Task: inverse folding
C-alpha cells in the first residue's frame, strides 16, 4: 500500500536503526525510513507533531516525533514499552522488533510547536524524563545552522530520575559543549559516576531563574513535574500565553474524528497536542 | 428504533485486510464499494442529524472518505411527522428549533395527505429522481398549498416546552462543569451501558481495532461510546473519566456545550431515542431543563 487520500491507511516504513536509550531497556528510539519515496515527500512535519505507529494485528499507537525535519530521509520515534498497568500491545511488539522490520506509519498529525510565535524570542525548554521527545525535535530544529539565527537565547533544562534514564545522552553531551545555548542536565538522584547536577527540575528552574523578558517556556514532563514547575515560572513573571506544553490523551484516529481525546471543545489530536497554558485554562479539567 | 446514521456510518467498517507473518506490503486497503442508495421515510429531526454529522465528518479538518462517499451516493426521502397525532412523550425536536415537517436537508420531502403521499424535490438530486418517476400524478395547486401549510403547521407543533437556545445552554453547561453534586445526582442511576450513544443519530465516537483469526486479520472501526469505562483509559493506567458521573457529564456537555463552541450547533436533534430506550429512565431533556434552572 502506498500513500493515498484515505487518512486511516498507514504507509509502509522500515526500521533502519534502533537505539536503546536507557539502562532499564524499556525506552528505545526507532528510526524509520519510508519504503516509498512519495510517502516520504508527503510526510512534511514540524517539531511537536506526532504520528500513529501501526502494527497489523496489534493496533496503532500515537507517538510524538523525536527527530527534526532538518534531518531528512528518516523519522525517529522514542517509544516506551507500555504495560505497567495495561498490556501495551503495539509498543511491546515494536520493542521486540529488529532493525529491518517493517511497520506502518500514519501522519504527521496534530499541530506543531508554534514556530512563528517562537521566532525572535528566547526559548527555555524544560523537560522531564521520557517526555523529552518532541522537545528534542524542537531543540535540534532550532540548532540547525540555517535556523539558529531565527531564535534568541536557548536554554535547556532537562531532568530524569537517574543518570541511566536520561535520553539522547550523546546529544546532551554535545549541547553542553556548545556556546550558543545553555544546557542544564539534572538527575533526581545521581550514582557514584554522576558528576553533574542533582535536584528536581522545579528547583533547578528556580535556581536558573530564566528571565521572562521576550521569552517563551516550553515545558513537558510527568504531571508531578508540571505541577511544581509551573508556579516557578509564574513567579518568575512568565505569562500563561508564554508557557507552552503538549497534552496527552488516549487517541485512536489522530485526525479529530473518533471523539476519544475530546477535552472540552478541543480534540487533543487535531487541535493540539500543543497548547499554551492560556488555552488550557479555557478547557475543563477533564484530562 | 435505531437511527439511520448506520447507513453512512455502519457499526463496523473494514479498513484493511492483513495477514500476520506476512509483510505489511501485502496488506490491502478495503475498497469502499458504495452503491446508489435511497433512504426512504427519514424524519425531519434525523435528516437534521445528517447535516450536523456532515460538519464533523466532512466539513472540518480531514475528510472521512467513508462518510462522505456514502452521503454522496444517497438520496434522502424525508418524511414529515403526522401532525394529527401528538408527538411521542420522549421527543423534543421542536425545543431545538426543528419543525415536525421541516424539509431542509432532504432531497425529496414527503407529506401525508389523507391517503395520498405528496412528494416534492428539495434539491437537484431529488428533482432528477422525481422527473424520472412516472407513476405519480402532478400536484394540484391545492396540493402545493397543503404542502406549504403543513410545513408551517409543523413548526407550530410543540413537543416539549422549554426552548433551548444553543449559546445559553452551552454557557450554562460550562458553568455547571465543576458542580459535582449536580452530575452525581443525575447520573446516580446510570449503568454506563452506552445504549443512548448507539441509538443517538449524532453520536460518532469510534474505536479502531485489529481482529485476527488464524493469521488473517482485519483492521476496522467499530462504534464506541464515551460512556464506557475504558474509553479514555491510557496505557499508563491513568483514566480522566473513571467515574460514571464524569462520563455522563462528558456525553451531555459534548452535545450541548462543546459541540456548540466547536461547530456552532447543538449535537442533539431531540429524536428521543436515548430517553425511550434508557434502561433506567434517564431523560436527557430533563437534565437539560435542570441545567437551565441550576
Result:
Amino acid at each position: 500500500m502506498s500513500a493515498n487520500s484515505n487518512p486511516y491507511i498507514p504507509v509502509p516504513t522500515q526500521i533502519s536503526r534502533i537505539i536503546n536509550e536507557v539502562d532499564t531497556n524499556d525506552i528505545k528510539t526507532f528510526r524509520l525510513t519510508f519504503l516509498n519515496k512519495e510517502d516520504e515527500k508527503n510526510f512534511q512535519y514540524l517539531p511537536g507533531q506526532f504520528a500513529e505507529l501501526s502494527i497489523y494485528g496489534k493496533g496503532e499507537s500515537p507517538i510524538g516525533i523525536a527527530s527534526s525535519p532538518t534531518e531528512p530521509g528518516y523519522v525517529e520515534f522514542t517509544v516506551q514499552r507500555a504495560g505497567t498497568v495495561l498490556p501495551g500491545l503495539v509498543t511491546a511488539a515494536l520493542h521486540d522488533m529488529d532493525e529491518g522490520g517493517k511497520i506502518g506509519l500514519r501522519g504527521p498529525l496534530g499541530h506543531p510547536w508554534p514556530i512563528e510565535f517562537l521566532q525572535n524570542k528566547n526559548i527555555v525548554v524544560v523537560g522531564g524524563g521520557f517526555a523529552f521527545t518532541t522537545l528534542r525535535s524542537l531543540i535540534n530544529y532550532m540548532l540547525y545552522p540555517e535556523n539558529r539565527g531565527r531564535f534568541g537565547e536557548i536554554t535547556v533544562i532537562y531532568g530524569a530520575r537517574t543518570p541511566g534514564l536520561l535520553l539522547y545522552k550523546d546529544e546532551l553531551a554535545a549541547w553542553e559543549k556548545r556556546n550558543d545555548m545553555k544546557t542544564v542536565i539534572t538527575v533526581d538522584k545521581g550514582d557514584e559516576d554522576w558528576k553533574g547536577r542533582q535536584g528536581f527540575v522545579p528547583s533547578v528552574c528556580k535556581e536558573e531563574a530564566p528571565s521572562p523578558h521576550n521569552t517563551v517556556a516550553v515545558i513537558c514532563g510527568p504531571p508531578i513535574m508540571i505541577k511544581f514547575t509551573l508556579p516557578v515560572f509564574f513567579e518568575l513573571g512568565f505569562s500563561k500565553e508564554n508557557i507552552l506544553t503538549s497534552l496527552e490523551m488516549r487517541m485512536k484516529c489522530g485526525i479529530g474524528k473518533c471523539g476519544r481525546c475530546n477535552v472540552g471543545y478541543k480534540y487533543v489530536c487535531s487541535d493540539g497536542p500543543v497548547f499554551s497554558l492560556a488555552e488550557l485554562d479555557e478547557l475543563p479539567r477533564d484530562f | 428504533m435505531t437511527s439511520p446514521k448506520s447507513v453512512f456510518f455502519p457499526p463496523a467498517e473494514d479498513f484493511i485486510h492483513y495477514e500476520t507473518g506476512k509483510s505489511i506490503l501485502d496488506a490491502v486497503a478495503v475498497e469502499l464499494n458504495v452503491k446508489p442508495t435511497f433512504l426512504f421515510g427519514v424524519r425531519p429531526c434525523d435528516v437534521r442529524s445528517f447535516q450536523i454529522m456532515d460538519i464533523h465528518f466532512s466539513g472540518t479538518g480531514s475528510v472521512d472518505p467513508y462518510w462522505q462517499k456514502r452521503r454522496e451516493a444517497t438520496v434522502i426521502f424525508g418524511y414529515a411527522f403526522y401532525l394529527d397525532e401528538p408527538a411521542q412523550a420522549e421527543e423534543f425536536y421542536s425545543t431545538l428549533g426543528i419543525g415536525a415537517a421541516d424539509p431542509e436537508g432532504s432531497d425529496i420531502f414527503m407529506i401525508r395527505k389523507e391517503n395520498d403521499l405528496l412528494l416534492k424535490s428539495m434539491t437537484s438530486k431529488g428533482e432528477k429522481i422525481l422527473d424520472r418517476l412516472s407513476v405519480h400524478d402532478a400536484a394540484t395547486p391545492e396540493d402545493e398549498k397543503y404542502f406549504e401549510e403543513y410545513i408551517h403547521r409543523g413548526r407550530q407543533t410543540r413537543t416539549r416546552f422549554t426552548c433551548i437556545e444553543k449559546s445559553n445552554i452551552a454557557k450554562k453547561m460550562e458553568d455547571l462543569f465543576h458542580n459535582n453534586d449536580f452530575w452525581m445526582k443525575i447520573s446516580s442511576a446510570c449503568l454506563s451501558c452506552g445504549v443512548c450513544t448507539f441509538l443517538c443519530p449524532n453520536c460518532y465516537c469510534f474505536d479502531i481495532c485489529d481482529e485476527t483469526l488464524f493469521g488473517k486479520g482485519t483492521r476496522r472501526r467499530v462504534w464506541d461510546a464515551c460512556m464506557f469505562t475504558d474509553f479514555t483509559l491510557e496505557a499508563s493506567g491513568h483514566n480522566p473519566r473513571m467515574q460514571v458521573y464524569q462520563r455522563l457529564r462528558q456525553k451531555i456537555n459534548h452535545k450541548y456545550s462543546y459541540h456548540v463552541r466547536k461547530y456552532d450547533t447543538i449535537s442533539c436533534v431531540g429524536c428521543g431515542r436515548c430517553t425511550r430506550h434508557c434502561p433506567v429512565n434517564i431523560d436527557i431533556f430533563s437534565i437539560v431543563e435542570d441545567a437551565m434552572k441550576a
Summary: The longest strand of chain A covers residues 11-20. The CA atoms of residues 50 and 214 of chain A lie 28 Å apart.
